[in-house]
Amino acid sequence: MNACGGENSSIPQKCQDSDDDFAPSKLGTKEYWEDAYKRELETYKDIGDVGEIWFGEESMERIIKWMKKQSIPENARILDIGTGNGIFLVELAKHRFTNLTGIDYATSSIELAKSILQEEGLGSVKLQELDFLNECEELGEFDVCVDKGTFDAISLNPEHAEEKKRQYVISLKAILRLGGIFVITSCNWTKEQLLQMFSPGFELLEVVPTPTFQFGGVTGNTVTTLALKRLS
């Protein structure tokens, strides 16, 4: 479940706006993602195309490079929140991380991810169809949690978006151990906005560099990636 396209694709809603609120969108609904991944699953079965890689391959590479730089153990328990097609899990496994779990609330997403992982010979990676906001207690505790666009999608939910954002933080604290690391990539929220929404309880470890653009003499970022540490 993700709200934005890859770094080189067109993004379906305004990103990095200075406003605190976003207009409700179908991108925030389960029905949208069920249909989207159902189409991607059919395409994968037909021609073997894994579908959209959210924020691009470079985004995955940057996160994994950062994790390696932090000397995160290869057996660390890692959760991919809103796994989509599961490609990030594939890349983590290729870098020898061994204790991987992906969750998504879309049945078609989990079916697609399972097909791709099996094709890659990665049947040991755990996949679970699960609503992170309401069923996270089933997951246990993790050392690292990664979100590439799922919090963005939740922010666009047509019903009770503010409540859902607050519940996301509660759910995250329920499954990320004290001292654990949360890496979030967003095309909707700035560094300052994310830090506000995830505090108290988290501190900034590092801003993971992302591509910049220039327009009218002003330099900005198309996406924001933060590494946060859980304090309480």
TrEMBL record:
Top-level taxon of origin: Eukaryota
Keywords of the record, alphabetical order, are: Cytoplasm, Methyltransferase, Nucleus, S-adenosyl-L-methionine, Transferase
Where mainly found? Answer: cytoplasm
The EC class name is transferase
Q: Does the keyword Transferase apply?
A: yes
Q: Which reaction does it catalyse?
A: L-lysyl-[protein] + 3 S-adenosyl-L-methionine = N(6),N(6),N(6)-trimethyl-L-lysyl-[protein] + 3 S-adenosyl-L-homocysteine + 3 H(+)
Q: Report the subcellular localization.
A: Cytoplasm; Nucleus
What are its E.C. numbers? 2.1.1.-
Q: Which GO terms describe its molecular function?
A: protein-lysine N-methyltransferase activity
Q: Where is the Methyltransferase domain?
A: 74-203
Annotated stretches, region: Disordered: 1-26
GO biological process terms, alphabetically, are: methylation
Tell me which Pfam families the record gives. Answer: Methyltransf_31 (PF13847)
Question: Looking at the keywords, is Mitochondrion present?
Answer: no
GO cellular component terms attached to this protein's record: cytoplasm; nucleus
Q: Which first-to-last residue range defines the signal peptide?
A: none
Family, similarity comment: Belongs to the class I-like SAM-binding methyltransferase superfamily. EFM4 family.
- Briefly, what is this protein's role? Protein-lysine methyltransferase that selectively catalyzes the trimethylation of EEF1A at 'Lys-318'.
Q: List the protein's name.
A: EEF1A lysine methyltransferase 2
Taxonomy-wise, where does this protein's organism fall, top ranks first?
Answer: Eukaryota, Metazoa, Chordata, Craniata, Vertebrata
Question: What is the primary gene name for this protein?
Answer: eef1akmt2
